[in-house]
């Protein structure tokens, strides 16, 4: 396990730690070739330098965020922000449906927008793959 992500997970309450640990386990399985690190204070997985998926503790839940998730066409993901991101939020580990999460992770590898270069392109996103 990535030591920095392990520390992040250990800093959560017991219930939130269970959520984070399960998300970590599933993301690691689904994103075998991804680089994982703490980015902007929370765990994020990257493919070729492009952020793909991450999670973070919010005030009332743990947020699972897919940077290109709006294009997954999945009812379990909600639009987040003004770009292409979508998220799911959890308050209990039992809310995580592993089959859905695995399907989302597969889509995350296939459907990507170029967040890596968003600053140099002055906020313009281009579709990858």
Summary, kept brief:
It holds the Pfam family DUF1801. The protein has helices spanning 3-10, 14-30, 98-110; strands at residues 35-39, 42-47, 50-57, 62-66, 78-79, 86-90, 112-113, 127-128.
- Element string (H = helix, E = strand): HHEEEEEEHEE
Number of strands: 8
Strand proportion: 25-35%
What do the pLDDT scores average to?
94
* Second rung of CATH, namely the architecture: Alpha-Beta Complex
Give the proportion of residues in helices: 25-40%
* Total number of helices: 3
pLDDT under 50 segments (min length 5)? none
Calculate the terminal CA-CA distance, rounded to whole Å. Answer: 29 Å
CATH class: Alpha Beta
Number of domains: 1
Strand order of the largest sheet: 1-2-3-4-6-5
**What is the 3D form?**
globular
Largest sheet, if any? 6 strands, antiparallel
Structural class by helix and strand composition: alpha+beta
Return the CATH topology. Aspartate Aminotransferase, domain 1
Radius of gyration: 14 Å
């Amino acid at each position: 396990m990535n030591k920095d992500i392990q520390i992040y997970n250990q800093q959560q309450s017991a219930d939130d730690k269970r959520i984070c640990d399960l998300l970590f386990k599933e993301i690691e399985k689904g994103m075998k070739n991804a680089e994982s690190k703490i980015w902007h204070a929370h765990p994020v997985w990257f493919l070729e330098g492009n952020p793909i998926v991450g999670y973070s503790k919010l005030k009332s839940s743990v947020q699972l965020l897919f940077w290109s998730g709006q294009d997954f066409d999945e009812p379990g993901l909600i639009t987040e922000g003004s770009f292409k991101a979508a998220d799911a939020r959890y308050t209990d580990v039992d809310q995580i449906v592993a089959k859905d999460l695995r399907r989302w992770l597969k889509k995350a590898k296939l459907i990507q927008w170029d967040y890596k270069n968003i600053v140099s392109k002055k906020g313009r996103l281009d579709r990858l793959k």
